[in-house]
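Model the whole thing, not chain by chain.
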Amino acid sequence: MDGEITVKITFPHMGNLWIALNTIFEELGAEVVVPPPITKKTITLGVRHSPEFACFPLKVNVGNFIEALETGADTIIMAGGTGPCRFGYYAEVQREILQDLGYDFEIVTLEPPQGSLLGLAANIKRLANYKSWNEIYRAFKIAWQQINALDIMHAASLKVRPYEEQKGATSKAYEKAVSLMVEARNTDSIAESLSQGLQIIESVSRVNSSRKPLKIGIVGEIYMVVEPYANMEIEKTLGEMGVEVHRSIYLGHWIKEHLLPKLFGPGDVEEIKKAAFKYLNHFVGGHGLESVGRTILYAQDNYDGVIHILPFTCTPEIVAQSILPEVSRDYQIPLLSFSMDEHSGQAGIITRLEAFMDLLEQKREKEKLLGAV
Amino acid sequence: MTTIGIPRSLLYYNYFPAWKCFFEELGAEVVLSDKTTKNILDSGVKVAVDETCLPVKLFYGHVQNLKEKNIDYLFIPRVVSVEKKEYLCPKFLGLPNMVLNLMKDLPPVLHLDIDISKKNKGFYRKIYKLGKLFTPNPLKTAVAFKKALKKLSEYQQQLLMGYTPMEYLDSLENGSISKQKYDFKDSKKNLDKREVPQKLKIAVLGHSYNLNDSYISMDIYKKLRDMGANILTTEMLSQSDQEKGASNLKKDIFWTFGKDIIGSAYYLLDQQMVDGVVLVVSFGCGPDSLVGEMIERTFKRKRTLPLLFLTLDEHSGEAGVLTRLEAFVDMVRLNKKTA
Ligand code: SF4
Ligand code: SF4
C-alpha cells in the first residue's frame, strides 16, 4: 500500500492487557514488540527515570517502555484521559522522560472519545496501516472477546485456589489456560480456549473440606489491582492462605467505562454510586468512588473483609482511604488498606495479611458463638 | 446573627473575598479560623490519613480550629471545576466527604458544589438553594451573588497589580494594606520597562494556599525580599500570559491550578523577564508530581532560566529552606553579573 510505514508497536503491561493489544495490532498487520515481563529491573529503570512522587503505575510504564524501546520498538500506544486524575497526563510526562533519555520514538495517545472521536479514529486508522474499518472492527472484537474470556478464567481461578491440594497448582493451571487464549484469534477458537481453560482450572485437585473459606473482596486503584507484579501477587498469596478472593475490578470493566462509556451504558456503576452516596456523593476521578461503593456492597454481601490497594500518593484513592474507616466501622467490615510502591516488600505485606486473617477468623468465631446462643 | 465558619486554608486564598461578601450580604457573619500555627497543623495531621498532602492535612486543622469557635455553620464548598474542560485536583472533589468522615461533632456543613466543567446551568439553582437558608427572597440571593462576583474580580485586579493574596486578604481584616510591601505596582509593566534593573527578580510559583500561608511557606516571600529580591507570583501574571505559556504544551492540562503554574513557568521561560524561578510543591501532591516534572525537564533542556524546586512537608525545617534559598539567590545573582 502507498505510504505504508512499518512501525514496531509497544504498550504498557497491565495484567493480561498485552494479550488483547498484541491481538489487535498483529491482526492488523503491524509488528508488535511486547515489553518483556515486569521484573525487578523494569521497576528499577522506571523508578530511576520517573518523578519521585509520580504514582507507581507511571513508573512501571516507563520501565516497560524503556525495555521495549531497547528491544526495537519505536511506537508506544498509551491511553489518554480528560482528568481529574493523573492518568490522563501520563503519556505527556512519559514522552518527556523518554525524549530526554534520547530514544527515537513516537507515543500515540488514544484519547477517550469524550475528547475527540475523530482524533481517536484517525489515530487508530493510522496505526492499523489504513486497513478497512471492517478489518479494524474485527480485530477489536476479537481482542474484546479475549479480554472477557480471560476475565472469566481469572474469576474461576480465584474460586478454586483456596481449596487446592497442592500450593501453586491453581496458578499453574491458570497460566496454562491464559496461554491457550494468547493463540486464539477468532470467535470459535476463543470459545474453545475458554472452555478448555476453564476445564484445566476446574480440574485442579482440591481438598475435601467442610470449612467455609474466608471471603475477601479486593477494591482499589485499577492498575494495582489488575497487575499482579505491582500488588505482589496478593490474590495468589491470599488464595494460598485459603481465602476466597473476589476482585471488584477487571480490565473488561475499565475498557467499558473508560474508553467506551457511550457504547456500554452505565453497567453496575449506578449501584455502586447509590451504595456510596451517604459517604461519598461525587466522583473523585480514578476509582475512588468505586472503592467506597464496592466496600459497602461487599459488606452487604456478607464478605468477611475488604482489602483496599492503592499506589502511594494516588489522589482519588486517598479520598477513598480517608472515608473507608468510617464505612468499615458502620458496616462492621474489617478493612486493610495497602499503599504500595517500589519500596513495598512482600514480607511486610504477608505479615500484615496474616494478622488480618487472624482478626477475621476471630470475628467469625465470635459471630458463630453469638449465633449459637 | 448566623455565623459561618470558613477555614483559612485551600481555596480561601482564591475566593474568600467573594464568599465573605456573599454571606454578609445575606446578613450572616463570617468567622475565619486562626492563622496557621503548629497546633493547627498538628491537629490536622492527627486526623488525616498519612499519605494526605500537606495542604489538605492543614485544612483539617483549620476545621478543628473552627470547631472551637462559636459558629452555626461550616462552609466547605466542593469546587470541582472553575473552567470549562478543567478540574481541580481529585482531593477538592472529595473534600467535604473526607472532612465529614474523618471528623466528628462538627457544626452543620453548608454544601455548595461548583462545577462548570461542562455546563454551568445547575449552578444558579445551587446558589439559590444555599441562599434559602438565609432569606426566602431569591432576589436578595441574586444580588448577593452578583456583588460577590464583583468582589472577586476586584480582588483579582488587585493581585494583577502586584499584591500577593496574603497582603490583600490581611487587609480585609485589619483595614489597610501595607504600602511598603508592595513590590511593584503594575508589576508586569514595571518589569517590562526595566524600572527596577538593579534588583533581582525572582518568580515564586506554586499553589496559592502554600505560598500565602506564611507558616507553611516559611514566609518565603519575606525571605526572598530580605535577600534583596523582588518577587513575582502566578497571580501577578494575567490569564492571557499564562495561556500563552501553557500553549507550549502538546496536550492541554486539565487541572486549573496546574495549568496556571506550568503556564506561568513556560511564559517566564519564554519572556526572560525574571532572573530565577522558585517552584514550591507539597510533598505527596498528585498533580504537582507531574506538573513539576514537566517544568523541571523543560527548564533543564533550555538552560536559560535557573530553577529551584522546593518540596515542603510537615517536617521541613526552616533552616534548610533558608539555606537552599540563599544558595539559589547567590547563584542567580552571580549569573546576572556574568551575563
Ligand atoms: S488513579 Fe491514582 S494511580 Fe492511577 S493515575 Fe490516578 S492518581 Fe495515579
Ligand atoms: S493539588 Fe496537590 S496539594 Fe493541592 S490538594 Fe491536590 S494533592 Fe493536595
